[in-house]
UniProtKB/TrEMBL annotation:
Transmembrane segments: none
Stored NCBIfam families: protocat_pcaD
Gene3D superfamilies (alphabetical): alpha/beta hydrolase
Pfam family, one: Abhydrolase_1
Database matches in PANTHER family: BLL5160 PROTEIN, HYDROLASE, ALPHA/BETA FOLD FAMILY PROTEIN
SUPFAM superfamilies noted in UniProt: alpha/beta-Hydrolases
Superkingdom of source: Bacteria
Name of this protein: 3-oxoadipate enol-lactonase
Gene transcribed to yield this protein: pcaD_1
One biological process term in Gene Ontology: beta-ketoadipate pathway
């Protein structure tokens, strides 16, 4: 088994409020959740973390899968003394959330998955992307990734809002990005979905070219207590493009 990595995290919000863990997209860091923080106000104790090899988290040994990213989160919860929490993950973070809810149901109160998938073939596409960033770094792929994160309309209308996200992608350690690609290539969580008992909110961006709404529909169909919301005018990073709508959906789902 791959040894758990000590994840970099930031915890904000009042002591005693319900815990919400936030896991981000491939190539992001915990700042991708900044648009949510003022909107969560003092109602949630928010733990934003970086996946291994992303942002401030060390990469550790290679050859890890979604299950290892999930075990990193369980180790972080143990370290922070969190017995049980709600989890919200976008994209790669959503895959980790599905694994956690299926394999550690006693730790996950409620689940929100945004712009994610239980299975994302073809594996060769991800492995090729991993080879590309290992060979050339992140800069050459940054514009293509940005083109999946945001709609053309949003990029054209609000370049100053988009620029920090391009810088975020370019700053992602190439080895961490490649490790994430390999974890997605090997992932097939479809058989796990029926094990998920946590109330689950599935959110898809209507214009997401990376994980289109059909991926969310499959998750919704195969999980017991789930609901799907397709958010209009949003691509892959729907929480950034539609911060009001997404923050409201998350708080309504995780707070009674
Ligand atoms: O393809 C992308 O860049 C978007 C993406 C798919 C899964 C993920 O985590 O990011």
């Amino acid at each position: 088994m791959v040894t758990a990595t000590t994840l970099f995290q930031r915890t904000t919000g009042p002591l005693g409020a319900p815990f919400l863990l936030l896991g981000g997209s491939l190539g992001s860091n915990l700042d991708m959740w900044k648009p949510q923080l003022p909107r969560f106000g003092d109602r949630l104790r928010v733990v934003r973390y970086d996946h291994r090899g992303h942002g401030g988290s060390p990469i550790g040994p290679g050859g890890y899968g979604i299950q290892d990213l999930g075990r990193d989160v369980l180790a972080m919860m143990d370290r922070l003394g969190i017995e049980r929490a709600s989890y919200c993950g976008s994209s790669l973070g959503g895959m980790v959330g599905l694994w956690l809810a299926a394999h550690a149901p006693e730790r996950i109160e409620r689940l929100v998955v945004i712009a994610t998938s239980a299975h994302q073939p073809p594996a060769e596409g991800w492995l090729e992307r991993a080879r590309q960033v290992r060979a050339m770094g992140m800069e050459p792929v940054a514009d293509a990734v940005l083109g999946r994160w945001f709609t053309p309309r949003f990029r054209a209308a609000l370049p100053a809002r988009v620029a920090p996200y391009r810088a975020m992608i370019a700053a992602c350690p190439a080895e961490g990005y490649a490790g994430g690609c390999e974890a997605i290539a090997a992932m097939d969580l479809r058989a796990d979905l029926a094990r998920i008992t946590a109330p689950t909110l599935v959110i898809a961006g209507a214009d997401d070219p990376a994980t289109p709404p059909e991926h969310g529909e499959l998750i919704k169909r195969q999980t017991m207590k789930s609901r799907l919301v397709v958010v209009p005018n949003a691509a892959h990073l729907a929480n950034v493009e539609q911060p009001e709508a997404i923050s409201q959906l998350i708080t309504d789902h995780v707070i009674d």
